[in-house]
Write a structure and sequence with these properties.
The complex is a heterodimer of chains A (114) and B (116). Chain A is an all-beta fold. Chain A is built from no helices and 12 strands. In chain A, strands 2, 5, 6, 10, 11 and 12 form a 6-stranded mixed β-sheet that branches. Chain A has a 4-stranded antiparallel β-sheet with strand order 3-9-8-7, with no helix packed on it. In chain A, a hairpin with a 4-residue loop joins β8 and β9. The termini of chain A are far apart. Chain B is built from no helices and 11 strands. In chain B, β4 and β5 form a beta hairpin. In chain B, the strands form 2 sheets. In chain B, strands 2, 4, 5, 6, 9, 10 and 11 form a 7-stranded mixed β-sheet that branches. The radius of gyration of chain B is 14 Å and the shape is globular. Helix content of chain B is 0%, strand content 49%. The chains are: A mainly beta (114), B mainly beta (116).
Chain lengths: 114, 116
């Protein structure tokens, strides 16, 4: 069964600083990979996804992520964070066959300081 | 284009009661998935419905059941509520093609269930 690990429970960065959120997955083949963002009391919004092809994917709000097969990683990056980026970030994996069950990590809470 | 909607927004129940949560899928979507998100955790897959039939189930007991209607909206029913059922319940819709392979899931805002 697939699994997702987000090693950082909470990250604090200064506004304008760069950001990298880590995500490692466990799956026998290349899965579909996603990053979602959740603001307090809200549902999940898709930031970006990787299905195949170019391993560097661009998403909304200036985010990007890089799929590294050799490291089983799909880290999320942003060159300069804004105060509005403060939220919970979830990495998720889905197999490329069968139903569309998403397996999520436990999330990383991002705090932005002025 | 209307997004995924869920009702009610909040709900308070007591142990042993039953609850029904509702979800309207995004226009054009034929697949609905339900997730449970406990406080401080990532969402956990409960089950998925496609063409009005259950199409995959996570590690949840049978007292969690669901329905999908011809208009692709869905219900999640939970019987004999327990304190640990307190969580945010998220519904997600997607469009599964004729090959059976789907696409990204779009999430609703969730229903916050509190069991006392």
């Amino acid at each position: 069964a697939q699994s997702v690990t987000q090693p950082d429970i909470h990250i604090t960065v200064s506004e304008g600083a760069s950001l990298e959120l880590r995500c490692n997955y466990s799956y026998g083949a290349t899965p579909y990979l996603f990053w979602y963002v959740q603001s307090p009391g809200q549902g999940l919004q898709l930031l970006l996804k990787y299905f195949s092809g170019d391993t560097l994917v661009q998403g909304i709000k200036g985010f990007e992520a890089e799929f590294k097969r050799s490291q089983s990683s799909f880290n999320l990056r942003k060159p300069s964070v804004h105060w509005s980026d403060a939220a919970e970030y979830f990495c998720a994996v889905r197999t490329n066959f069968g139903n569309e069950k998403l397996t999520f990590g436990t999330g990383t809470r991002l705090t932005i300081i002025p | 284009e209307t997004g995924v909607t869920q009702s009610p927004t909040h709900l308070i129940k007591t142990r042993g009661q039953q609850v029904t949560l509702r979800c309207s899928s995004q226009s054009g979507h034929n697949t609905v998935s339900w997730y449970q998100q406990a406080l401080g955790q990532g969402p956990q897959f409960i089950f998925q419905y496609y063409r009005e039939e259950e199409n995959g189930r996570g590690n949840f007991p049978p007292r969690f059941s669901g329905l999908q209607f011809p208009n692709y909206s869905s219900e999640l029913n939970v019987n004999a509520l327990e304190l640990d059922d307190s969580a945010l319940y998220l519904c997600a819709s997607s469009q599964t093609g004729t090959s059976g392979r789907g696409n990204e899931q779009f999430f609703g805002p969730g229903t916050r269930l509190t069991v006392l």
